[in-house]
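hey so i finally got around to running both of the ones u sent me last week. sorry it took forever, my laptop kept dying halfway thru and i had to restart like 3 times lol. anyway pasting them below in the order u listed, first the sequence line then the structure token line for each. didnt double check formatting much so if smth looks off just lmk and ill redo it

first one:
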Amino acid sequence: MALAPVRALRALYAVLLTGLLAAPAPAVTASAEPPSRPPSGPRSAATPAAAPAPRIPGVRGLEIAVPAYVWAGDPVLAELTATGPAASVVVLNPGNGDAPFGSAWLARADALRAGTTATGERTKVLGYVHTDRGNRDPAAVRASVDNYLKTPDGRLHVDGIFFDVVSRDCGPGNATRDHYAALRRYVQDTVHAVDPDARELVVDNPGTATADCYLEPGHRTADVFVTYEGTYAAYTSGGWPGGNVFDAVGGYRPGAELDPSGTAFWHLVHDVPDAAAMRATLATAFARGAGYAYATSAAMPNPWDTSPTWKFRSQTGYAATLG
């Protein structure tokens, strides 16, 4: 299929979206009350807003994926729930992944999953699970997975799992890689036991380039890999290792040959100084092969527990123009 018309369609959509983003955003409140019913009488003659366009096959884009390490009632999650275009992925983290995923969390997850992204898809919600670089007891890891996927009502309220503190090395005889591949299969089996038609999402976060064995066909450990987590200063100077994957012989490389969909890599950048730097960060992430990214002005010790100084909407909207 010729790509020129495809790119033209995407460019047209980007122009339309940019125009929409120029309009003032409505105020967002933590109560997230439903909008009031419009007054009766003749309909307004205003032109309706353009519907989000689905992703065009063959054209790689960039999506916003947000680690939100706050409690269910926090204003950060209320803001994300109200944001349009919505983030493509939101990671929920109740008590480092092991606090009960109770009714407040289930309601918040459902509300987030109702969001519509710039590509016309629904937001995916992931549950946070730490792995201690492969050293945490596998039974404890599976119990954390069950906390999200085995709910009292027997329904799925999340779309998958975000495994954190993941090893980036294959291990002796690929043992570490195989450990994470087994965890991915456990997530898949548990999701499909609840809903055979569900499309699960598994993310591994080593926080840096990962060994290419993790993406080896037949042994893949995740759908998406966080291959950068660090500061803006490092990301834009000497902190980028030079690729999303590496091997002992060839060193670092982008990894595009292991990622035909353009969605396997996710970059997380904090200490971003302003909105202009946020846009530059997203453009850089796209150029470095990321399919997902997130830039925030927040800083350590936890840059994922507060909103950036700019609105989430400015980030989700700008990302939709890349591609």
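and the second one:
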Amino acid sequence: MPRHRVLARVHGPLSRLAWFLWYLAVLLVPLFLAWAVLGPPDSGAGAAVMLSTGLVGFSSLVVAVVLPARLPLLIASFGIETVLAVHRLVALIAVVLVLVHLFAVLFVDPRGLSILDLVHTTWAARAAVTSTVALGLVVVLALRRPSRQPRYEGWRLVHNGLVAVVLVFAWLHVWWLRHLVAHVVVAAWFVVSGLLVVGLAARRWIWLPIRSRRFAYVVVSVRAVPGDGVTLVIRADGHPGLPFGAGQFVWLKIGSTPFVFEEHPFSIASTAEHPEQMEFTIKALGDFTELLGALRPGRRVFLDGPYGGFTIDGLEAAPGFVFISAGVGVTPLLSMLRTLADREDQRRFLLITSARTEQDLMLRPEIAQVRTRLNLKVIEAVSAPGQDWTGETGRIGRNLLTRNLPRRPHRLHYFLCGPAPMVTSVSHDLAALGVPYRRIHTERFGSV
């Protein structure tokens, strides 16, 4: 079987700066073009506020839609948790700007509230009202989601549908205003922005599912594992496998077609050297993981990915790695360890894994097996130990790290995976021990 290697890319500060500048341009270029080409409004400060908040608000909506469009290089540069956090922040900024724009319009336009009369107003105003109402519904659904706890797939379907309405009618509002797109340069910008969103939507909802169908997998086995988890093993169906980097994740779809709406992200636990067979270990939570337990061998599944920059690729010159996990966060770390073992890596490695009880520690047999093939030291810590427990106790913190990290810890690279509070806390502890943040690689579960 040929060995598959993913070309390593290290996404550092320059990559993140480039993305930041690109998004800043998307936000501000239409405002600059409108002021430079059309000139400042003649109606005073109110009209200036109306124009500025409207254009930047529209641009913010475009950026908010583009951010979660599953661009591999973007996710690799920032991590999926950061991309989604910025998406929510930009969406909030867009809502504020749209509200300010609305109040400025009501203040400046001599028609006042009558502009909201959909029967006797202009098409541009109708589009604006439709977009604003849909945006309000998006906000209401987002605020009510934590308390109502709707099924995620249904909520996401309604959310995405409303977002499409918001963006389409916001674009039509700008276009039907005419005077904003009267100049060919400004018109060209809005046409390009519209085509960008349409292209990304087509890629996300048409091309990626088609690609998933080409790289379909079939279920080999499903088994329960200690720690209340399920391990799913799948094999490539008529192709050599989907190359991935150790530590990356995919969105998994179950159904007769890859165009099904329900999908969930899971880290790959198997070696990157043999992508023809993938393995996932999933915590038994919610309806979807219960569905996984009911799968039978031979059932087709579809993958969208791989994604993420949480990988050892590109770090071949590092003197060693320290892997730190909590709960099911050990799964991408196991992929890294298995990959290193298959590559016959001779460096020293340390794995620190934690759980509430000894029974909650996941993938212990798999870790023990890979330990026979690597120079690997394993430290286990539980916060509620039984009478016979002889390992570390308590949460992973500065004292535990000080006792177990090798000398000169600042030379190593660290991979942290688990719940967000644990990852943040341990990152700070490592930094306090002299580890540079650029050597701390993190992935937070529960953020997607």
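quick thing i noticed on the 2nd:
Confidence is low (pLDDT under 50) at residues 1-10.
anyway thats it, ttyl
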